[in-house]
Amino acid sequence: MITIIAILASMLLPALSRAKEMGRRAICLSNLKQIGLGLVMYADDSSDDLPYNLVSYRWETEMMWFIQDAPMNHIGEWHPLGLLYHEEYVSDMKVFVCPSNEAEIPSEYDPVLMASEVGVPANGGMVWSTFALNIRGRKGPHDYTSPDDGYGLLEQGPYGLLGGKAKFSRCAAEKFLCASDGVGTPRGKPPGNHASHTLGGNLPAGFQILFFDGSVHWVSDVYHELAWDPVFNVFGNYADWHQFWTYTEDTLPD
């Protein structure tokens, strides 16, 4: 009898794990849709502009808030995702965290802790979302990529050639990726390595991807190729130069 129970349990546990993951994936999809709606409302109120990106560490796709860093002469700044929270287009910090995320330092993605630290220099240093926003296109604080300067991976992204701003209508027309589950090790510092939808492994089995038309699609990546960047020899989408952000809705693998 004990053997039969053990066999049945071994058969049921994977199915239960998959069912739990599907529930988490549904919440993740809803969160990304809310971020997409926040971007739509922001653009409606800002003459079609998306949140500006003239900030320190402007290449960080997942960063929401960066405290003043005296040795590096940086000031506390809201990054594009953080501006959605700061200006209350997305008012619940839980929306910025995928429930399926597995992190090296889980407390860094605790919505209560994030809300207590974001925007308050005395309380924290940096706050990240588990989601990554496509901010490809910047080259420097006031210097954006031109087509012939050798920065091929940065050309023509949402923020390319527009001086730190992006136009929602242009991004939609170009079918750029808008946002996605984040993966990798931002800056090589806390919050450390993280990934969502790993199904018990170390790398994601796929990504929930938000498009500028408001739709969210699951893109399977069982062979872990989508976020592999052969140019920089890393697996991630935490920086705007990663190859992940060169895909469009039309060029994503099936």
Spatial strand sequence of the major β-sheet:
5-6-8-9
Number of domains: 1
Please trace the helix and strand order, writing H or E for each element: HEEHEHEEHEEEEEE
Largest sheet: 4 strands, antiparallel
Radius of gyration: 19 Å
Which spans have pLDDT < 50 for at least 5 consecutive residues? Answer: 140-145, 147-154
Overall pLDDT metric: 81
Put simply, the count of helices is 4
Beta-strand residue percentage: 5-15%
Q: What helical percentage do the residues reach? A: 25-40%
What structural class results from the helix and strand content?
alpha+beta
Distance linking N and C termini: 45 Å
Shape: globular
Give a count of the beta strands, DSSP E runs of length 2 or more. 11
Characterization of this structure:
It is a single chain. This protein is α+β, with helices and mostly antiparallel strands and 254 residues long. 26% of the residues lie in helices and 15% in strands. The protein contains four helices and eleven strands. The strands form four sheets. The protein has a four-stranded antiparallel β-sheet, with helices on one face. A hairpin with a 4-residue loop joins strand 8 and strand 9 (216-220). The N and C termini lie far apart (45 Å).
